[in-house]
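Whether sequence alone determines local backbone shape is best considered at the level of individual chains. Part of our work consisted of pairing the sequence of a single chain with a tokenised description of its backbone. This step matters because it turns folding into a mapping between discrete strings. For completeness, the protein is quoted in full, as a sequence line and a line of structure tokens:

_____
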Amino acid sequence: MAFIWIKPLLLCLLLLLVFIDLSQATSLSTIPKKRNYEEKYYYVIELVDESFVSPQDVEKLLDVQHEGQVGALDNWHVFSTHKSLTARSDSAGEDSQDRVLARYEQLKNLRRSDSSNKKRSASPIDAILSVEKQHLRKRHKRAPPPIPTPITDIDPVTVAASLGITDPGFQYQWHLINPIEHNDINVTGVWEEGITGKGVYAAIVDDGLDANSDDLKDNFFAEGSYDFNDHGKLPLPRLSDDTHGTRCAGEIAAAKNDVCGVGVAPDAKIAGIRILSGQITDVDEAEALNYAFQKNQIYSCSWGPPDDGQSTEAPKGVILQSMIKGIKEGRGGKGSIFVFASGNGGAVDDNCNYDGYTNSIYTVTVGAVDRTHSHPYYAEKCSALLISTYSSGSGSYIYTTDVGKQNCTSMHGGTSAAAPIATGVFSLVLQIRPDLTWRDVQYLAMISAVPFNLHEKEWIRNYAGRLYSHKWGYGKLDAYRIVQNAKTFKNLESQVHKEMPIIVVNKIIPFNDHGIISSINVTQKDLDDVNLARLEHITVTINIDHTRRGDIEVDLISPYGTVSHLGAVRRYDEFKGGLNNWTFMSVIHWDESPVGEWVLQVRDRQNPEHTGTFKDWILKLWGEKIANVLSTNPSPSPSPSPSPTINESPIPTDDDETSTSTSLLPTQSSIALESKSSTWIFAVFGMGIAFIFAGIAYFAKRRCWDKRGRKGRSFFSRDTYDVLQSGEVATGGDVSLPLNKQFMTSRELFDAFGDSSEDDESTQVVFENAYMDEDINDDEKKVDNGSYTEGMIEHRDGGITNDSNNEDHQ
């Protein structure tokens, strides 16, 4: 009876927490309105911020009907008009004659010609920033491409027998457990620590997700799911080829059972966002990329423009705004994690820098490597490629869940299969560090990647001392390595950028090996002007007229000689329009000093009958703000986690004061802090009082629970993972997870998920790129065939071992 008065206080506390959560969630998802593209034309109209013009004013102005706001985008709205009102075609070529677009241009022209009064009163047309007519088009899956020539399949059973291995279970999920080549994502040590993706929500933006599969049903997250093709809450596969999304979902979060193996993060929740089963418009895609973005944390996207070696397509307008909205406000301001497959056009000389999704600074671009550490013929190369992970090639594929109650497939692959594996690894990271921003995740992926096949000439060393390859980025993703680094990683400061003045060239590109050289000098004052502390991404926006776009080569050379191949030759690209305001991106120069002369080299060496003119270009530096410098968009205090001891052998740089850009996007949420300061004061005061009383009740009541002899979970108990500090031993976790008896019978997997009676002590190891030893570039000390450099530490065979004496087998 003494504790009856506690219940109302606990109820008040619960209501207060709900209130606070709602007050900071600026864009809770609503059910998208179904659009009828057969009967109506649709237009996306952007209004000025805090516009004095309402959507109803726009209706009258352009004679259209307001259909609602575009998802979470505050100033973007959808309008429609019945096709019966105009006989114009819906093709893109007829947009210049569209009634609504023509009306908009007429009003703008009249407004420009009105010079009767310099101080004109505001007009509704002034509030309209853009009008985009919507066109249906199909996004392309990056599914396994056909094999162009016959190859000799590897018989894993025969190979295993030759090595004295009699257990065939490993052959199915070799990307998790690979006792033959020892090439896998190194995840079992993470599972042993109880890190399995609990509390993390990943959305598969694809062709559907079979929520009825025994492998996926327990982890299906309905609240974060939606079908943008058939407009329904359940994004179930409906077409015969709607298998892609289910297979990707199985790689991420297939449950711990005996169906089709296990996902990289078997306790993560997965949502399905269906967009690839038919044609959609830009507004559909924009809403999909922000759908439930306060709940969905990672968006796994194994799709993009056609991988045909002749397309250039980038998100723009409403799609670009949705991505920016996601990284600024998703996950409570920490930013949505967009993971994109690099593309399967390698066989036709496609390059992921001609894909505006994969060369965006807002996305993690993931390439592919096969089980023998070879570069698959389909995998695209580019300077925007951040990391790689395993997929099909050399006769092997990825084994995963398929559509059906207990169906599995052994034929998943392409870069489509690589991106979900990375999503699974990032889910493990976010379980222990939910405070990480979208840039933190990119940085951790970069410093934790493991180079391999170091005899390959593709590897270069940037001036920050890191190895990079246009084939594989900074290397393969290692789950154990990135999780250990995440435990002590200190959040980056907010993002800034520096846009340099436009460089006008206007010269004909000669047909020779030299081409045209143009340069710009970046000074320390340029960086100081924007408080740029450390370089991350670099973008180059370029204009080139050319009668055959596929002949153009574009290289960016840093002040220290590091070369980014921005634009490569594409033999099938015969487009006659050149490159018009196309933006290339490079991650190669991360942590280099930007001070000095940056050189852009444009060459034309393929077909002398085709010519071009290099018109102009703009260099933009993106990176981290100088610490403790106030900006217009302040970030909350960084995570309380200690500074990382990530590299025991320091990065060999000449200048520790190098790096980055101007204030643009905060990495932590500052949404509505100024306008809702009074709400937060009330909330904090109320929480303080509530917690005092609740704490008294909790500690008093704990004695009663202890007397009953049980470890019952209290109202305040948390089922989360405590971040390990340096020197602590990884313990605990779920040691009773069921084993997949059919496909996961290797001893290592049993040690990871089974109930072990022997708990070996392990040492906390946190490191940044152990390959960055100062002797790594000596030819005599390079390691061929994917073996690791001397001193590299890994977690394998149930414990932490020094792997310097072990070699990877090809």
Observations:
- DSSP finds 14 helices and 29 strands in the chain.
- The longest helix spans residues 677-707.
- Residues 140-487 form a domain with the Rossmann fold fold (CATH 3.40.50.200).
